[in-house]
Write the structure tokens for this entry.
Amino acid sequence: MDEKQLLMIPGPTPVPQSVLLAGAKPMINHRGPEFAALLAEVTAGLKRVFQTDHDVFILTASGTGGLEAAIVNVLSPGDLVLSVSIGVFGDRFATIAKTFGAKVESLNFEWGQAVDPEKLRARLAADKKKDIKAVLVTHNETSTGVANDLSTIGPVVREHGALLLVDGISSLLAMDCQTDAWSLDVVVAGSQKAFMIPPGLAFIAISDRAWAAMAGAKMPRFYWDLKKAKDYLERGQTPWTPAVPQFFQLREALKILEAEGLQACFARHARLAAAVRAGVGALGLKLFADPAHASNAVTSVKKPDGIEVSALRKLMLQKYGVVLAGGQQQLQNEIFRIGHLGYVSEPEIIATLGALGLALRELGSKVDSWAGVAAAVGSLGG
Amino acid sequence: MDEKQLLMIPGPTPVPQSVLLAGAKPMINHRGPEFAALLAEVTAGLKRVFQTDHDVFILTASGTGGLEAAIVNVLSPGDLVLSVSIGVFGDRFATIAKTFGAKVESLNFEWGQAVDPEKLRARLAADKKKDIKAVLVTHNETSTGVANDLSTIGPVVREHGALLLVDGISSLLAMDCQTDAWSLDVVVAGSQKAFMIPPGLAFIAISDRAWAAMAGAKMPRFYWDLKKAKDYLERGQTPWTPAVPQFFQLREALKILEAEGLQACFARHARLAAAVRAGVGALGLKLFADPAHASNAVTSVKKPDGIEVSALRKLMLQKYGVVLAGGQQQLQNEIFRIGHLGYVSEPEIIATLGALGLALRELGSKVDSWAGVAAAVGSLGG
């Protein structure tokens, strides 16, 4: 029997029942009229989510495939790229660029901190010859639970003239991302995050400036070729057979999200994130992320004194059915992470903090088991 | 309301209800123990389907992504590749190789015909210096309805020493594919064909010789990097977030297929294909494919005299709910195609041929409407 679980990781996130079942519809011809109507509808919905009037394409791939698409469509081998990284996913974006032959210069910030836009501005200002062709940045760094301020970073990069490529895989819908207003040239998102649908699709928004760069971009591309995606979209198709169930699910999820409204969706994520942070703090735990830049999608928590992260996660899973994420790479045993994006409710946040309090006590902490619940309830308000 | 349809195209194919619903299970942590068990189970099942003791990996992508993975993992820019093409998908495989910098020599055969293994043998025998690093071949050419004889081609290529890369996207399970016994080095398949699950996954089998080539292969790869896939598989994970619903569905479909047995599955496809060919012939229509090499997955039919393919497909869809595929590229108005792979029953074959007879009459043919049904029933036997 499958055990009931509370999936509190930063993706895959829980999926509403109506969205799960939308994926169980019979298959259709991906080159027929029903799919064309579906593709048009979800593409229009995505443009509203990305807050863009430009192109958005849907790729059958994980989010990382979307990052690869971002790189190979607009760059050439030898191009100088400035990677502005604050964690695992920022580093991954840079590695992809390197893999395809870009010269990557790193402007890294301490894990747990956000990008300092002034340092970025200074580096770009020093590039008098405009050698830097693109800047890579992560909107929400899932590995550290830090959100970067794209409303500042976007204009800083535009002032220089480089393309700004954004990993928004875990940020879209969990936080405001104004693709056009903030001058973001390429933005990549993933289906299994705040979109409330299973993994299998990546979304990619492309500005007119990115299209212009694409004409001269020489990195090899076939599966990720967005020119092909555009040609096929005009006929109501995707170049390659799409993951049809996730397209059905995207339509259903977008209906739910449009009924809620973008601003309400952002506010919901902010409210839940604040409750988690309050609860975690009340349990005597410390946030890993700089509180000034803590993410509304995922909260990173430092290892409790005297308790192994692996033991805590195991107890949470086996006794309480709460699935938490560990740390990645050098943070593996240093932090754990609570995802609170997508289809997560206030009672589930409370349940998670209750289980966390109980588990901490069982593992030797002297904390009041229910202190996290009380603080989260206070944060959520009446 | 969604209209009832008989989806008779060569993918996406109809999905059994139990498989559809298996995809509607709640999400799980893709880095947790349940997914590790699932991944181990379906990987073992795929090895039996591919008839290989070597590695098989599951990629979150369309089949074309699997083809790109095949190319970029084992080749270097400048490598000489022999493309043995008999249609659209063979040409696509060659285009991918060219896109990533291979020198591609084409050994093409007329569309509707299969590869002549003796011509392939002669070309390889002339390559005394062993310049040809890989041979690309399509097992089942979906665009023309022709199956190549890999049991002959495999040993011919092995004798030369080049790697043999096989597009088996629409062939696996619809026809015998003995990866190890026939010396196939890389075989790619797609989920939405005879596997009876929705699109979203590509499967790729890799021989030891292909692994050896991979060590020196210099084409850039990140998302498709099979070395990463192998490292993660050893920990029960995929490098990137997998399309979890399709993994659940693959487990369910493999259970159904294992209960049937591989040989019975091939025989079922052969029986349905023969019935379709008999029925089409009895309706006075001509096969596009050389009958000696006609595919057991899809039947290509020449445009009926005096009837437009588009008009026929439209009437079949709108009046009878039967979805047929058109031709591709230069065959667009020359043929239509009937898919009969995966979850397709004998009564559905009969229904399709009945609708086809009625539609032909309505469009002016003098044929006996039910001649196709009678011939198919005769072919299927008692």
